[in-house]
Write a structure and sequence with these properties.
Layout (H helix, E strand, L loop, with lengths): L5 E3 L2 E3 L3 E3 L8 H9 L4 E3 L3 E2 H12 L3 H4 L1 H11 L3 H32 L4 E7 L6 H10 L3 E6 L10 H18 L4 E5 L6 H9 L5 E4 L6 E4 L4 E4 L9 H11 L6 E5 L5 H10 L3 E4 L1 H6 L3 H15 L37
Parallel strand pairs: 3-4, 3-13, 4-6, 5-6, 6-7, 7-8, 8-9, 9-12, 12-13
Antiparallel strand pairs: 1-2, 10-11
This protein binds flavin mononucleotide (FMN).
C-alpha cells in the first residue's frame, strides 16, 4: 500500500491534494464533506480587502462612484480627508475590520472543532496595509496556516518593477512579525525576473508558495461593446504554465511549492508532483465534478503509485524537475519549432 502522506508548510497532510480557496470552501458542511472525501487540507475562502472597504463605506455612507475606495485603497482614502475626518474614518475603519473579521474568525473556530485536516486561512491583499491585524487574530482563532493571496497587477505605467514587487516583501514582513503559524503566498507570474524574484521571496521566512493564482481576466462582447468576464473556471489544459515553473523552481526555493491552476484530474496531480510540487491545489475540478471527485483523484494517485512501485510521495517527487533532467532545456523551450512537433 502506498503512503500518500506529505509535508506542506511544515504540516503533515494525509495526501498532497488541497482544496483551493473559493466559494466552496466557505461552508462548514462542504469542508466536512471534503474531509470525508479525503482532502489533504482546505484553504478557506479569502477575506478580501474589498470586504473591509465595503463595510467602512457602509458605515460612513460614502458612495462608490465618488470614492472608489476599492480601487484606491485605504491609504488614498486617508490622504483625501481632513485630519479630523481621517481620525473618524480610522475609527470606523477599525470597527469595519473587526466586524468583517469576526465572522471569519467564528468560521475558523467552528471548522477547527469539526474537522481534523489542516485548515489554511486566506487573506487577499493587493496593497500594503496592516494585514498583521488579521493574521494575528486568524492564528488565535486556530488556523493551521495563513495563505496570503497577493496579486499586484503591474498596470501603472509610473511604477517600476521594483515598486510593484516590493509590495510582496512588505506584506510578508508585516505579517510574519506577528504570527508563528506558517505563512505562504499565492502569487501571479507578473514579475520582472520571475525565477530570481521567487527565489528571493522564498528566503523571506515564508513556508510555501502557491504557483500560480488564476487571474480574473476581462473579455469584450463585440455586439454589446461591453467588458465581460472570461471563464471563471479553469479548463484542464491550463496546467502546463504552472508545470513549467514548478519544474524550473523545484529544489531552488527555500520553501514548499503548491501547484495550482488547471489541475483537474489524477494525471495532472501526478505531473505536478513529478515536476517537484509538495502539494497541489484544486478548485474548478471540484466545482465541475462535486466534492466526492476529490476521492477519485486521490485513488488515481494511489493506483499509479502502486503500479509504479512508489511507496511514498518522496520516492517520485521532483523526479522530472529541471534540476534532475538530463536535458534541462526541455522546460526552457518557448518557441514553437517544427522539429519538436509532429505538425508539418
Ligand atoms: C468561484 C471561485 C472563487 C474563488 N475565490 C478565491 C478566493 O477567495 N481566494 C483565492 O485566493 N482564490 C480564489 N479563487 C481561485 C482558486 O483558488 C484557484 O486558484 C483558481 O481557480 C485556479 O485553480 P483551478 O484551476 O483548480 O480552479 C477562486 C476561484 C473560483 C473559481
Amino acid at each position: 500500500m502506498a503512503d500518500l502522506t506529505t509535508k506542506y508548510l511544515g504540516l503533515t497532510l494525509q495526501n498532497p491534494v488541497i482544496i483551493g480557496s473559493s466559494g466552496i470552501t466557505n461552508s462548514v458542511d462542504n469542508i466536512i464533506k471534503m474531509e470525508e472525501n479525503n482532502a489533504g487540507a482546505v484553504v478557506l475562502k479569502s477575506i478580501f480587502e474589498e470586504q473591509i472597504m465595503h463595510e467602512t463605506q457602509k458605515l460612513i455612507g460614502i458612495n462608490n462612484d465618488s470614492m472608489q475606495p476599492m480601487m484606491n485603497g485605504y491609504k488614498d482614502i486617508m490622504q483625501h480627508r481632513s485630519y479630523d475626518y481621517a481620525e473618524a474614518f480610522e475609527y470606523l475603519s477599525n470597527f469595519a475590520k473587526e466586524h468583517t473579521l469576526n465572522d471569519y474568525l467564528r468560521f475558523i473556530s467552528e471548522i477547527k472543532k469539526v474537522v481534523k485536516i489542516p485548515i489554511i486561512a486566506s487573506i487577499n491583499c493587493a496593497f500594503t496595509y496592516d494585514w498583521h491585524f488579521f493574521a494575528k487574530r486568524i492564528q488565535e482563532a486556530g488556523a493551521d496556516a495563513i495563505e496570503l493571496n497577493i496579486y499586484v497587477l503591474p498596470s501603472d505605467p509610473k511604477k517600476t518593477g521594483k515598486e510593484n514587487e516590493d509590495v510582496y516583501l512588505n506584506i510578508i514582513q508585516d505579517v510574519r512579525q506577528y504570527v508563528t503559524i506558517p505563512v505562504s503566498i499565492k502569487i501571479s507570474y507578473y514579475f520582472s525576473g520571475l525565477s530570481n524574484k521567487l527565489i528571493e521571496l522564498s528566503k523571506s521566512g515564508i513556508a510555501g508558495m502557491v504557483l500560480f493564482n488564476r487571474p480574473y481576466s476581462p473579455d469584450i462582447n463585440i455586439e454589446e461593446f461591453k467588458i465581460t468576464a472570461d471563464q471563471i473556471y479553469s479548463n484542464p489544459s491550463e496546467f502546463t504554465h504552472t508545470l513549467r515553473w514548478v519544474a524550473i523552481l523545484a529544489g531552488r526555493l527555500n520553501c514548499d511549492i503548491a501547484a495550482a491552476t488547471g489541475i483537474h484530474n489524477d494525471e495532472t496531480v501526478i505531473k505536478q508532483l513529478l515536476a517537484g510540487a509538495n502539494a497541489v491545489q484544486i478548485t474548478s475540478a471540484v466545482y465541475a465534478n462535486g466534492i466526492q471527485y476529490i476521492n477519485s483523484i486521490i485513488s488515481g494517485l494511489e493506483n499509479w503509485m502502486n503500479k509504479h512501485n512508489f511507496k511514498t510521495i518522496d520516492d517520485f517527487r521532483g523526479k522530472m524537475s529541471q534540476a534532475k533532467l538530463e536535458n534541462p532545456a526541455a522546460y526552457e523551450r518557448v518557441q514553437f519549432m517544427k522539429l519538436y512537433s509532429n505538425i508539418v
